[in-house]
Amino acid sequence: MPDVRRYMARAGELFRVPADNPELTRAQFQAFSKQVPLLYFILITNSLALAYTFLPLAPAWLTVSVPALLSTITGVRMLWWLRQGEVTSSDAEVLHNLRVTNRIAGPIGALFVVWSFALFPYGDPFAKGQVAFYMAVTVIGIIFCLMHLRSAALIVTLVVIVPYVIFFMSTGVHALRAIAVNQLLVSGAMVTVLFIYYRDFAALVASRKSLLAEQAATQALSDENFRLANLDSLTDLPNRRRFFSELTHAFAEAERDGTRLAVGIIDLDGFKPINDTYGHTVGDRVLMEAARRISEVCKSRGSQVHLARLGGDEFGLVVVGNPTDDDLLALGREITDLIKLPYQFDTTHTGLSCSTGFALYPRSAMAADALYECADYALYHAKRRARGQAIIFSTELEAEIRSRSVIEHLLRTADFETEMDLAFQPIMDATNARTTGFEVLARWRSPKLGLVSPSSFIPAAERIGVIRALTRVLLVKALATARTWPDDIRMSFNLSAHDICSPEGILPLISIIHASGVPPRRIEFEITETAVTFDFARAEESIAALKAIGCGISLDDFGTGYSSLSHVHRLPLDKLKVDRSFVRDVNANPVSHKIIKSLTGLCADMEISCVVEGVETKEQLDSLKRLGADYIQGYYFAEPMPAEAIYGFLTKERQRFAEPAGAKVAGLSA
């Protein structure tokens, strides 16, 4: 009994419109609404043709009144369905309309069947054959038109075909019986096709639903990836990629409309000491708060200022709306004033400032990337000479850039062997103030420019790709000088990121060392934090190669770059050099005092030496000795000197330590 009930329930489902699949129901409705008008058209025209056949044979009420009534009913339904193509219906309305069609399909079909049978007795053999033909052809057309609504098609088939077969089989006419059997077989085949078509239609809708869901998921993922690719995860501001996209778009509009456009670059002053003193967690919170404050200023100007985080503690601005110099300076001052307000995090209380560089189109540059470079140079100038202020790129700064271009041009054609010279600054033992080595400093005497500062020509050599050739020449000269020193005096030589991260590797420098005759144990290479982070994996390999032959490694300018303690821990360092910027105010600034104390403690824990550079006064020296510095370097002991002055410097030092007057310095050639 349960199986019978289950079977009956499943059979009953064939005659109902399913309500549990809105996508299938809507697809049925959309396809069905295009075919129902055709269904009613077939029904009306075939019925009128049958009525016309019986017009001289049957009563008027059967040939005129009834067909008119049936045609009116079906005509109204046809017009209603024609209007549905212009109406947007909800899922509930779609289901309701299909159910109404399902409910009226049987009664309408029954009316036409009864009418057809009522006409049959009045006809001659040809007219009676017309009735059989009418019912057979019409029901086939209706089944085709109702294929997208399986339940209605089955109802009409049963309402028409079952009486049709019974009626014509009972006539006793062999031809009509044959037609009835034939119609039964054709209808069975049609129903089979109907089930197959409906199954495939439902599968197609399901696959389309799955495809749409997959496309929606893909689009959502694509949108999220695009958002993440253009968003800074820490501050939720647009990132560097989005900034340059916005700049390109804004520049094109300014160029088209003939309006002014400005690019601004903001750099936080004093962020690095905060990050080093209080850790990256506090540093990140400072960055988020600074970003919020800058964003607050930008939002106050509506859509005229677009803000992005370019990386580190640097932010970018795209200023549209025809800004003037006064507008930019006012924007810079407002941002600076807000950034200067104290930052309070739990028990941590700190402060910082910011410098800003602006460049204005079309005055400063005629291309988007050139405009950015001008703003970057204005920021560079602000940090050097007007820290904490906003600077607009000017003709004076343009002259500086041209001067930089001149340096780059002359470097390309310079004879390093004759034009490059060396100076040497002593590195002293903090406990007894005796010289333990000399740092090698490059000097360029250009025939056209005269003496050029290393701060100008070293970055230029890196930019134009001649730094490796310059390093090799300077190293040969430095080793030739170091060979004349006593065996206990070491040489400290600076390497750039290009030297330790180049595809050629460190092998050319190792060859120079082996050819010099100077023991590698007397050579120490200084590498900056930025050089290490330029390509840490390759830098690590180069440092390992230098250590393998016996050279020492110092991490230079520690505290000003971007390395992390994990980098420091992974490198085989011998010394860590504390940048001079922390020494300048070590006795006046508690933050600088804490940083140096932390760094000397770090060196002690890692069992490496701590070198502090930039010492200029006895007070600084005394403080650094108390803080645990191992080695000292600075003008307090000596300025950089030429090679020929080293002999005299060491001689005086030995005399200062009460060595016999006139005694020669062992191992030093005059």
Automatic annotation (TrEMBL):
Residues 259-395 form the GGDEF domain. SUPFAM superfamilies: EAL domain-like (SSF141868), Nucleotide cyclase (SSF55073). The chain crosses the membrane at residues 36-55, 61-82, 103-123, 129-146, 153-173. It comes from the Bacteria. Keywords: Membrane, Transmembrane, Transmembrane helix. Residues 404-654 form the EAL domain. CDD domains: EAL (cd01948), GGDEF (cd01949). Coiled coil: none annotated. The keyword Transmembrane helix applies. Pfam families: EAL (PF00563), GGDEF (PF00990). NCBIfam families: GGDEF (TIGR00254). This is EAL domain-containing protein. The lineage of its organism: Bacteria, Pseudomonadati, Pseudomonadota, Alphaproteobacteria, Hyphomicrobiales.
